[in-house]
Amino acid sequence: MFAPTPVETMTFAQREIFVKRDDLIHPDFSGNKARKFQYFLEKEYPEITKLVGYGSAQANSLHSLAVLAKMRGWQLDYYVDHIANYLQQNPQGNYLAALENGANIIEKPEHVTESIDSYVTELAKSALDNELYIPEGGRCEYAAIGLEQLGQQILDWIHEKHYSTLNLFLPSGTGTTALFLQRFFKIKRFEHEDLPEVNVLTCSCVGGDDYLRLQFNQLSENALHHPRIISNGNKYHFGKLKRECYEMWQRVCASGIEFELLYDPVGFIMLEHFFTQSSTVDNIDNTAPLMYLHQGGVLGNPSMLARYQRKYQAK
Ligand SMILES: *Cc1c(COP(=O)(O)O)cnc(C)c1O
Fold first, then answer.
1. What is the structure's pLDDT at 284?
2. What is the top-level taxon of the source organism (predicted)?
3. Cβ(295)–Cβ(170) below 8 Å
4. CA 251 to ligand 1 center in whole angstroms
5. Residue 227's CATH number
6. CA–CA distance from 243 to each of 265, 276, 313 (Å)?
7. How many whole angstroms from 69 Cα to the centroid of ligand 1?
8. What is the pLDDT of residue 253?
9. Which of 21, 169, 176, 177 is the pocket-test mutation for ligand 1 (most atoms within 8 Å of CB)?
10. What is the CB < 6 Å shell around ligand 1?
11. How far is ligand 1, taken at its centre, from the CA of residue 111, in Å?
12. What is the residue range of 64's domain?
Protein backbone atom coordinates (compact mmCIF):
# COMPACT_ATOMS: atom_id res chain seq x y z
CA MET A 1 0.00 0.00 0.00
CA PHE A 2 1.39 3.41 -0.97
CA ALA A 3 1.10 6.51 1.22
CA PRO A 4 -1.39 9.06 -0.17
CA THR A 5 0.15 11.27 -2.85
CA PRO A 6 -0.14 15.05 -2.35
CA VAL A 7 -2.77 17.28 -3.93
CA GLU A 8 -1.58 20.69 -5.09
CA THR A 9 -3.37 23.63 -6.64
CA MET A 10 -2.60 25.31 -9.91
CA THR A 11 -4.21 27.99 -12.03
CA PHE A 12 -5.33 26.81 -15.44
CA ALA A 13 -7.60 28.60 -17.93
CA GLN A 14 -8.43 31.20 -15.25
CA ARG A 15 -9.58 28.49 -12.89
CA GLU A 16 -8.05 27.06 -9.78
CA ILE A 17 -7.69 23.32 -10.23
CA PHE A 18 -6.31 20.59 -8.00
CA VAL A 19 -3.52 18.34 -9.21
CA LYS A 20 -3.24 14.86 -7.71
CA ARG A 21 0.49 14.19 -7.83
CA ASP A 22 0.49 10.49 -8.59
CA ASP A 23 3.82 11.10 -10.31
CA LEU A 24 5.26 11.28 -6.78
CA ILE A 25 4.19 7.83 -5.50
CA HIS A 26 7.75 6.59 -5.22
CA PRO A 27 11.03 7.82 -6.77
CA ASP A 28 11.36 4.76 -9.01
CA PHE A 29 7.90 3.27 -9.13
CA SER A 30 5.38 5.97 -9.86
CA GLY A 31 2.39 7.14 -11.83
CA ASN A 32 -0.22 5.22 -13.68
CA LYS A 33 1.79 2.02 -14.20
CA ALA A 34 2.75 1.77 -10.53
CA ARG A 35 -0.96 1.79 -9.61
CA LYS A 36 -1.71 -0.80 -12.26
CA PHE A 37 1.17 -3.09 -11.31
CA GLN A 38 0.74 -2.71 -7.55
CA TYR A 39 -1.03 -6.06 -7.44
CA PHE A 40 2.14 -7.82 -8.62
CA LEU A 41 4.21 -5.99 -6.05
CA GLU A 42 2.09 -7.18 -3.14
CA LYS A 43 0.81 -10.62 -4.05
CA GLU A 44 2.72 -13.64 -2.83
CA TYR A 45 4.38 -15.60 -5.60
CA PRO A 46 6.50 -18.29 -3.94
CA GLU A 47 7.59 -19.91 -7.21
CA ILE A 48 8.18 -16.92 -9.44
CA THR A 49 11.69 -15.76 -10.32
CA LYS A 50 11.02 -14.17 -13.68
CA LEU A 51 8.59 -11.61 -15.04
CA VAL A 52 7.81 -11.55 -18.75
CA GLY A 53 6.28 -8.53 -20.44
CA TYR A 54 6.19 -6.80 -23.79
CA GLY A 55 5.48 -3.47 -25.40
CA SER A 56 7.43 -0.56 -26.78
CA ALA A 57 11.09 0.10 -25.93
CA GLN A 58 10.16 3.62 -24.80
CA ALA A 59 7.09 2.70 -22.75
CA ASN A 60 6.45 3.78 -19.19
CA SER A 61 5.43 0.19 -18.48
CA LEU A 62 8.92 -1.06 -19.41
CA HIS A 63 10.49 1.12 -16.75
CA SER A 64 7.85 0.26 -14.15
CA LEU A 65 8.11 -3.48 -14.78
CA ALA A 66 11.91 -3.29 -14.50
CA VAL A 67 11.62 -1.59 -11.13
CA LEU A 68 8.92 -4.00 -10.00
CA ALA A 69 11.11 -6.99 -10.93
CA LYS A 70 14.07 -5.47 -9.12
CA MET A 71 12.01 -4.75 -6.00
CA ARG A 72 10.93 -8.37 -5.93
CA GLY A 73 14.31 -9.82 -6.81
CA TRP A 74 13.04 -11.22 -10.10
CA GLN A 75 14.48 -11.09 -13.58
CA LEU A 76 12.55 -9.17 -16.25
CA ASP A 77 12.38 -10.38 -19.84
CA TYR A 78 10.70 -7.68 -21.89
CA TYR A 79 9.94 -8.32 -25.56
CA VAL A 80 9.84 -5.49 -28.07
CA ASP A 81 9.14 -5.39 -31.76
CA HIS A 82 12.23 -3.40 -32.51
CA ILE A 83 14.76 -1.14 -30.79
CA ALA A 84 15.62 1.86 -32.93
CA ASN A 85 19.36 2.16 -33.72
CA TYR A 86 19.42 5.64 -32.30
CA LEU A 87 18.01 4.44 -28.99
CA GLN A 88 20.40 1.50 -28.84
CA GLN A 89 23.37 3.81 -29.33
CA ASN A 90 22.00 6.56 -27.09
CA PRO A 91 20.01 4.83 -24.36
CA GLN A 92 17.72 7.30 -22.59
CA GLY A 93 14.42 7.73 -20.79
CA ASN A 94 12.43 4.64 -19.89
CA TYR A 95 14.71 2.38 -21.95
CA LEU A 96 17.83 3.51 -20.10
CA ALA A 97 16.11 3.36 -16.70
CA ALA A 98 14.96 -0.19 -17.45
CA LEU A 99 18.50 -1.25 -18.43
CA GLU A 100 19.85 0.32 -15.26
CA ASN A 101 17.36 -1.73 -13.29
CA GLY A 102 18.64 -4.90 -14.90
CA ALA A 103 15.92 -5.50 -17.52
CA ASN A 104 16.60 -7.99 -20.25
CA ILE A 105 15.13 -6.28 -23.34
CA ILE A 106 14.67 -8.73 -26.18
CA GLU A 107 13.90 -7.90 -29.79
CA LYS A 108 11.48 -10.20 -31.57
CA PRO A 109 13.45 -12.59 -33.81
CA GLU A 110 13.66 -11.37 -37.39
CA HIS A 111 11.91 -14.38 -38.92
CA VAL A 112 8.82 -13.81 -36.78
CA THR A 113 6.20 -11.95 -38.76
CA GLU A 114 3.34 -11.95 -36.26
CA SER A 115 2.82 -9.02 -33.90
CA ILE A 116 4.72 -8.86 -30.63
CA ASP A 117 1.37 -9.26 -28.90
CA SER A 118 0.59 -12.65 -30.47
CA TYR A 119 4.25 -13.74 -30.34
CA VAL A 120 4.39 -13.32 -26.55
CA THR A 121 0.88 -14.74 -26.11
CA GLU A 122 2.20 -17.83 -27.89
CA LEU A 123 5.28 -17.96 -25.62
CA ALA A 124 3.03 -17.68 -22.58
CA LYS A 125 1.35 -20.97 -23.48
CA SER A 126 4.54 -22.82 -22.59
CA ALA A 127 5.40 -20.69 -19.56
CA LEU A 128 7.54 -22.37 -16.92
CA ASP A 129 6.38 -22.52 -13.29
CA ASN A 130 8.79 -19.76 -12.33
CA GLU A 131 7.61 -17.34 -15.03
CA LEU A 132 4.88 -14.74 -14.68
CA TYR A 133 3.51 -13.22 -17.88
CA ILE A 134 1.99 -9.74 -17.71
CA PRO A 135 -0.44 -8.41 -20.33
CA GLU A 136 0.63 -5.22 -22.10
CA GLY A 137 0.33 -1.96 -20.22
CA GLY A 138 -1.77 -3.47 -17.45
CA ARG A 139 -5.07 -3.67 -19.33
CA CYS A 140 -6.56 -6.23 -17.01
CA GLU A 141 -8.73 -6.72 -13.97
CA TYR A 142 -5.70 -6.97 -11.64
CA ALA A 143 -5.09 -3.26 -12.30
CA ALA A 144 -8.23 -2.50 -10.29
CA ILE A 145 -6.47 -3.24 -6.95
CA GLY A 146 -4.08 -0.30 -7.09
CA LEU A 147 -6.53 2.01 -8.85
CA GLU A 148 -9.16 1.45 -6.15
CA GLN A 149 -6.65 2.52 -3.53
CA LEU A 150 -6.09 5.67 -5.55
CA GLY A 151 -9.88 6.13 -5.71
CA GLN A 152 -10.10 5.81 -1.95
CA GLN A 153 -7.40 8.44 -1.46
CA ILE A 154 -9.43 10.79 -3.63
CA LEU A 155 -12.63 10.09 -1.66
CA ASP A 156 -10.77 10.78 1.60
CA TRP A 157 -9.50 14.07 0.20
CA ILE A 158 -12.99 15.13 -0.96
CA HIS A 159 -14.30 14.30 2.50
CA GLU A 160 -11.72 16.60 4.12
CA LYS A 161 -12.72 19.36 1.71
CA HIS A 162 -16.45 18.82 2.37
CA TYR A 163 -17.22 18.78 -1.35
CA SER A 164 -20.34 17.04 -2.60
CA THR A 165 -19.17 16.75 -6.21
CA LEU A 166 -15.81 16.46 -7.91
CA ASN A 167 -14.89 16.32 -11.57
CA LEU A 168 -11.79 14.14 -12.00
CA PHE A 169 -9.96 14.60 -15.29
CA LEU A 170 -7.32 12.28 -16.71
CA PRO A 171 -6.15 11.61 -20.28
CA SER A 172 -6.58 8.03 -21.54
CA GLY A 173 -4.61 5.50 -23.50
CA THR A 174 -6.49 2.22 -23.20
CA GLY A 175 -9.03 3.86 -20.87
CA THR A 176 -8.44 1.26 -18.15
CA THR A 177 -7.45 3.78 -15.49
CA ALA A 178 -10.40 6.08 -16.17
CA LEU A 179 -12.95 3.27 -16.29
CA PHE A 180 -11.78 1.44 -13.18
CA LEU A 181 -11.83 4.72 -11.27
CA GLN A 182 -15.34 5.61 -12.46
CA ARG A 183 -16.56 2.11 -11.64
CA PHE A 184 -15.07 2.36 -8.15
CA PHE A 185 -16.76 5.71 -7.43
CA LYS A 186 -20.14 4.51 -8.74
CA ILE A 187 -20.11 1.28 -6.76
CA LYS A 188 -19.02 3.05 -3.57
CA ARG A 189 -21.79 5.60 -3.92
CA PHE A 190 -24.31 2.89 -4.64
CA GLU A 191 -23.33 1.28 -1.33
CA HIS A 192 -23.20 4.56 0.62
CA GLU A 193 -25.58 7.17 -0.67
CA ASP A 194 -24.02 9.97 1.36
CA LEU A 195 -20.71 9.73 -0.50
CA PRO A 196 -19.83 12.53 -2.94
CA GLU A 197 -20.41 12.20 -6.64
CA VAL A 198 -17.22 11.85 -8.66
CA ASN A 199 -17.48 12.29 -12.42
CA VAL A 200 -14.52 10.87 -14.28
CA LEU A 201 -13.78 12.87 -17.41
CA THR A 202 -11.26 11.75 -19.96
CA CYS A 203 -10.11 12.17 -23.55
CA SER A 204 -8.63 9.90 -26.15
CA CYS A 205 -4.90 10.25 -26.82
CA VAL A 206 -4.40 7.07 -28.81
CA GLY A 207 -6.96 6.02 -31.38
CA GLY A 208 -9.81 8.50 -31.29
CA ASP A 209 -13.08 8.53 -29.37
CA ASP A 210 -14.56 5.45 -31.07
CA TYR A 211 -11.56 3.34 -30.07
CA LEU A 212 -11.88 4.56 -26.50
CA ARG A 213 -15.62 3.80 -26.41
CA LEU A 214 -14.86 0.30 -27.68
CA GLN A 215 -12.32 -0.16 -24.88
CA PHE A 216 -14.89 0.96 -22.32
CA ASN A 217 -17.41 -1.55 -23.64
CA GLN A 218 -14.86 -4.36 -23.45
CA LEU A 219 -13.94 -3.47 -19.87
CA SER A 220 -17.50 -3.08 -18.61
CA GLU A 221 -20.90 -3.58 -20.17
CA ASN A 222 -22.44 -1.26 -17.60
CA ALA A 223 -22.62 2.18 -19.22
CA LEU A 224 -22.88 3.79 -15.78
CA HIS A 225 -19.26 2.78 -15.24
CA HIS A 226 -18.09 4.51 -18.40
CA PRO A 227 -16.24 7.82 -17.97
CA ARG A 228 -17.32 10.87 -20.01
CA ILE A 229 -15.24 11.50 -23.08
CA ILE A 230 -14.42 15.18 -23.57
CA SER A 231 -13.57 16.13 -27.12
CA ASN A 232 -13.10 19.31 -29.12
CA GLY A 233 -13.61 17.34 -32.31
CA ASN A 234 -9.92 17.00 -33.17
CA LYS A 235 -8.18 13.65 -33.28
CA TYR A 236 -4.66 13.38 -31.83
CA HIS A 237 -2.37 10.58 -32.93
CA PHE A 238 -0.25 9.06 -30.21
CA GLY A 239 3.31 10.35 -30.16
CA LYS A 240 2.75 12.66 -33.11
CA LEU A 241 4.31 16.09 -32.70
CA LYS A 242 1.94 19.04 -32.76
CA ARG A 243 2.87 22.63 -32.09
CA GLU A 244 -0.40 23.06 -30.21
CA CYS A 245 0.59 20.23 -27.85
CA TYR A 246 4.06 21.59 -27.27
CA GLU A 247 2.66 25.05 -26.48
CA MET A 248 0.13 23.62 -24.06
CA TRP A 249 2.88 21.65 -22.34
CA GLN A 250 4.97 24.82 -21.92
CA ARG A 251 1.95 26.65 -20.53
CA VAL A 252 1.13 24.05 -17.89
CA CYS A 253 4.76 23.46 -16.92
CA ALA A 254 5.07 27.19 -16.23
CA SER A 255 2.86 26.51 -13.21
CA GLY A 256 5.88 24.83 -11.62
CA ILE A 257 4.67 21.24 -12.04
CA GLU A 258 6.31 19.21 -14.78
CA PHE A 259 3.80 17.25 -16.87
CA GLU A 260 4.58 14.70 -19.58
CA LEU A 261 4.46 15.19 -23.32
CA LEU A 262 2.38 12.31 -24.70
CA TYR A 263 -0.91 12.39 -22.79
CA ASP A 264 -0.97 15.58 -20.73
CA PRO A 265 -0.93 18.14 -23.60
CA VAL A 266 -4.03 16.54 -25.12
CA GLY A 267 -5.54 16.29 -21.65
CA PHE A 268 -5.16 20.00 -20.99
CA ILE A 269 -6.36 20.98 -24.47
CA MET A 270 -9.56 19.02 -23.84
CA LEU A 271 -9.86 20.29 -20.28
CA GLU A 272 -9.69 23.88 -21.51
CA HIS A 273 -12.37 23.04 -24.05
CA PHE A 274 -14.52 21.58 -21.26
CA PHE A 275 -14.14 24.76 -19.18
CA THR A 276 -15.12 27.03 -22.06
CA GLN A 277 -18.41 25.22 -22.70
CA SER A 278 -21.60 26.72 -21.33
CA SER A 279 -22.06 25.57 -17.75
CA THR A 280 -23.08 21.94 -18.23
CA VAL A 281 -21.58 19.35 -20.56
CA ASP A 282 -23.46 16.08 -20.79
CA ASN A 283 -25.24 16.90 -17.51
CA ILE A 284 -21.93 17.58 -15.83
CA ASP A 285 -21.50 20.92 -14.10
CA ASN A 286 -18.20 22.32 -15.32
CA THR A 287 -18.04 24.83 -12.48
CA ALA A 288 -17.70 22.04 -9.88
CA PRO A 289 -14.24 21.56 -8.28
CA LEU A 290 -11.86 19.88 -10.69
CA MET A 291 -8.96 17.55 -9.98
CA TYR A 292 -6.43 16.64 -12.67
CA LEU A 293 -4.68 13.33 -12.18
CA HIS A 294 -0.94 13.54 -12.86
CA GLN A 295 -0.14 10.02 -14.02
CA GLY A 296 3.64 10.33 -14.15
CA GLY A 297 5.67 9.53 -17.26
CA VAL A 298 8.00 12.56 -17.18
CA LEU A 299 11.02 10.32 -17.70
CA GLY A 300 10.08 10.21 -21.38
CA ASN A 301 10.21 14.01 -21.67
CA PRO A 302 13.85 14.51 -22.72
CA SER A 303 13.50 12.30 -25.80
CA MET A 304 10.15 13.87 -26.77
CA LEU A 305 11.63 17.33 -26.25
CA ALA A 306 14.58 16.45 -28.46
CA ARG A 307 12.10 15.42 -31.18
CA TYR A 308 10.20 18.69 -30.76
CA GLN A 309 13.40 20.67 -30.95
CA ARG A 310 14.49 18.87 -34.11
CA LYS A 311 11.12 19.54 -35.69
CA TYR A 312 10.49 23.14 -34.65
CA GLN A 313 13.95 24.28 -33.54
CA ALA A 314 12.03 25.15 -30.42
CA LYS A 315 13.85 26.25 -27.32
C1 LIG B 1 -0.19 4.39 -19.38
C2 LIG B 1 -0.39 5.84 -19.16
C3 LIG B 1 -1.62 6.48 -19.45
C4 LIG B 1 -2.81 5.74 -20.03
O5 LIG B 1 -3.45 4.89 -19.12
P6 LIG B 1 -4.69 3.99 -19.61
O7 LIG B 1 -5.12 3.26 -18.40
O8 LIG B 1 -4.15 3.04 -20.65
O9 LIG B 1 -5.72 4.88 -20.18
C10 LIG B 1 -1.72 7.85 -19.22
N11 LIG B 1 -0.68 8.57 -18.75
C12 LIG B 1 0.52 8.00 -18.46
C13 LIG B 1 1.62 8.86 -17.96
C14 LIG B 1 0.70 6.62 -18.65
O15 LIG B 1 1.89 6.06 -18.37
1. 93
2. Bacteria
3. yes
4. 21
5. 3.40.50.1100
6. 10, 21, 11
7. 20
8. 98
9. 177
10. 31-33, 60, 137, 171-178, 260, 263, 295-297
11. 31
12. 33-138
Answer yes or no: are the C-beta atoms of 185 and 151 closer than 8 Å.
yes
Q: Nearest 5°: CA angle at 133, between 22 and 185?
A: 35
Task: Count up the domains in the chain and report the number.
Answer: 2
Give residue 1's pLDDT.
79
- Asked whether residue 70 is assigned to any structural domain, the reply reads yes
Residue 197 lies in a domain: yes
**Ligand 1 mean position, distance from CA 172 (Å):** 6
Cα(239) to ligand 1 centroid in Å equals 13
Under the phi-then-psi rule, with left for phi > 0, alpha for psi from -120 to 50, and beta for the rest, what region is 102?
Answer: left
Closest atom of ligand 1 to 297 CA is 13
